Amino acid sequence: MSFFKNIPYELVLGWRYTRAGRATRRNGFISFISGVSMMGIGLGVAALIIVLSVMNGFQKEVRDRMLGVVSHIEVYAVDAAAVADMPALLARLKAHPQVLGAAPFVTAQALLARGEDMKGVLVRGIDPAREPEVSDLSQDTQAGVLGRLVPGEFGLVLGRDLANNMGLQGGDPVTLVSPSGQVTPAGVVPRMKQMGVVGTFSSGHYEYDSALALMHVEDAVRMFRLEGPSGVRLKLRDLHQAREVARDLQLDLGPGFFVRDWTQQNKTWFAAVQVEKRMMFIILTLIVAVAAFNLVSTLVMTVTDKRADIAILRTLGASPRSIMGIFVVQGATVGVIGTLSGLALGLLVAFNIDVIVPALETLFNASFLPRDIYLISRMPSEPLASDIWPVAIISLVLAFVATLYPSWRASQVNPAEALRYE
Questions:
Q1: How many whole angstroms separate alpha carbon 335 and alpha carbon 402?
Q2: From CA 262, how far away is CA 75, in angstroms rounded?
Q3: 343-394 pLDDT tens trace
Q4: What is the 3-state secondary structure (H, E, C) of the chain?
Q5: Short-list 116, 93, 20, CA closest to 333
Q6: Residues of the chain with pLDDT > 70: what percent?
Q7: In sequence order, which residues have a C-beta less than 8 Å from that of residue 47 and are 6 or more positions away?
Q8: To the nearest whole percent, how much of the chain has pLDDT over 90?
Q9: Which of 143, 306, 370, 387 is the most buried (most CB within 10 A)?
Q10: 400 and 288 Cβ atoms separated by less than 8 Å
Q11: What is the pLDDT of residue 398?
């Protein structure tokens, strides 16, 4: 009992007004409006958490598929020159504690021709034995495809969409045209080489599946008349440390090499995703703001209904600050309960969206992510504490700010005027 005696009466009265009884029609209506405000805050917070979690999931899914083809870091020799001492460079790069694997490569633009059908492609010369060290592509590709790239045989492994668009299958001949041609008395003649398609791969990312062709690094060196591989691809222990590792390697290797990490290779895409996520956060925060400021009307009606109570408290010695505290407690209680319920609902849906979405698709006989349109066929979700905490804090701050003006008006009630007609 001594514990309850020590509770400030502002908290007790604020909680009692929040639970506003239904003795009169007006009290019941105020209670209803208070409940609607609480529900609005909860739904707004839940919507924010669910949307941000799904956007995080999409970003992670696409990023992982992208990094199945793109390496974490690429090291180039400047001016597109060949690396002079490849074994020494590989040993030097692997000495960094963050580097898990390294593999030489050649990259160039070319044309792929079959009859009158021609496509621009990005040709990447790889070492099939080292490719698993730097890429997940070999794990997702049908067994043994990269092993069919034998030096001297000039075989190609094409992206599945590229092969389908050109009507190519394993064993079909195709012509690779290099833009850097041979100088002849008749002018510059593009170099052409008859090659064979030895297989296809699918990374799950249309940009690469429709434009990437793989060949053995030794064949690529001969085809593009280089003195050796033009760079090294690296895989890191922590892909999020790519910028720092690239900076360290650039300082270590000096001006003879150019180091580029995966965030620079896809800078536009990642910037667009961040802008979209930021705009969605702002738009959905407005929903929470509207619900929070519904508390203003709730508290204004409560103050009007409790004018007599306020006057009696003032005559008993309550200060204006105490009166203001009562209604701040009432509004803050609604905000806290609404925010906590929204967090619970949002996290429940975000962590179980892989179960909820298939159930809804079965119930409504619809497909939210058609396989022939989207990169992925399931709804991904990744709730992050860095998104959840700001949502909760903003919701609580908005609810608190919404209580200030009505609470201040309550503290300014004149006891004599309020009790004149009582």
A1: 10
A2: 11
A3: 999 999 988 888 888 788 788 877 766 655 565 667 788 888 888 898 889 8
A4: CHHHHCCCHHHHHHHHHHCCCCCCHHHHHHHHHHHHHHHHHHHHHHHHHHHHHHHHHHHHHHHHHHHCCCCCEEEEEHHHCCCCCHHHHHHHHHCCCCEEEEEEEEEEEEEEEECCEEEEEEEEEECCCCHHHHCCHHHHCCCCCHHHCCCCCCEEEEEHHHHHHHCCCCCCEEEEEEEEEEEECCEEEEEEEEEEEEEEECCCCHHHHCCEEEEEHHHHHHHCCCCCCCEEEEEECCHHHHHHHHHHHHHHHCCCEEEEEHHHHCHHHHHHHHHHHHHHHHHHHHHHHHHHHHHHHHHHHHHHHCHHHHHHHHHCCCCHHHHHHHHHHHHHHHHHHHHHHHHHHHHHHHHCHHHHHHHHHHHHCCCCCCCCCCCCCCCCCCCCHHHHHHHHHHHHHHHHHHHHHHHHHHHCCCHHHHHCCC
A5: 20
A6: 83
A7: 284, 287, 346
A8: 2
A9: 306
A10: no
A11: 87
